[in-house]
């Protein structure tokens, strides 16, 4: 009987200690410091845009990205991505087709949109600025994504003006304002 009680005491003590280790070790702090080993859910990832002047929402369906992100050492991190212009959709087939023409995205000559980060800056509280080069229609401009590390995803947003990329939907720059966002959910956490 004493052996059974001793066995139960040791078993529950070890179980409790392991459970506390799991809570302490995987409470988010160690996980967030090792995000470079996270797997992203590419099926649920999204790149979306909102053309403010005309209240048009859209998304890019076909894109690839490569992320190495170390929140405690953002200077060693990077985000790169490539998106297919042909996969751009606004849920209006005529408008989408029209956007592929030479006067807009000119898909035949410039089939991809690319982004390459040059610097990632930590602003604390899981907020980062990702500075990099966005190329659309063969024109490269520096942009700054405002990013947050959420519990289950990396989220980012920036504002661009399509006229800066020789895509002038309207006559004035301000009317060509576009909010660009991404969401990259995590699949699993390193253990």
TrEMBL record:
Transmembrane segments: none annotated. It comes from the Bacteria. InterPro entries: Lipid/polyisoprenoid-bd_YceI, TTHA0802/YceI-like_sf. The keyword Signal applies. Residues 37-187 form the Lipid/polyisoprenoid-binding YceI-like domain. Pfam families: YceI. Keywords: Signal. Residues 1-19 form the signal peptide. This is YceI family protein. It comes from Aquimarina hainanensis.
């Amino acid at each position: 009987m004493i052996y059974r009680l001793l066995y139960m005491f040791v078993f529950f003590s070890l179980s409790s200690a392991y459970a506390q280790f799991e809570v302490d070790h995987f409470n988010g702090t160690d996980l967030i410091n090792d995000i470079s080993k996270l797997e992203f859910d590419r099926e649920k990832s999204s790149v979306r845009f909102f053309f403010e002047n005309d209240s048009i929402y859209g998304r890019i369906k076909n894109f690839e990205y490569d992320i190495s992100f170390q929140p405690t050492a953002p200077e060693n991190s990077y985000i790169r991505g490539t998106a297919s212009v042909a996969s751009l959709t606004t849920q209006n087939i005529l408008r989408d087709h029209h956007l592929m023409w030479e006067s807009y995205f000119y898909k035949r000559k410039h089939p991809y949109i690319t982004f390459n980060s040059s610097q990632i800056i930590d602003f604390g509280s899981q907020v980062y600025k990702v500075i990099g080069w966005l190329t659309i229609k063969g024109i490269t401009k520096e942009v700054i994504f405002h990013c947050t590390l959420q519990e289950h995803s990396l989220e980012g947003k920036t504002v661009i003006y399509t006229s800066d990329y020789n895509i002038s939907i309207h006559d004035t720059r301000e009317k060509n304002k576009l909010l660009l966002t991404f969401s990259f959910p995590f699949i699993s956490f390193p253990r």
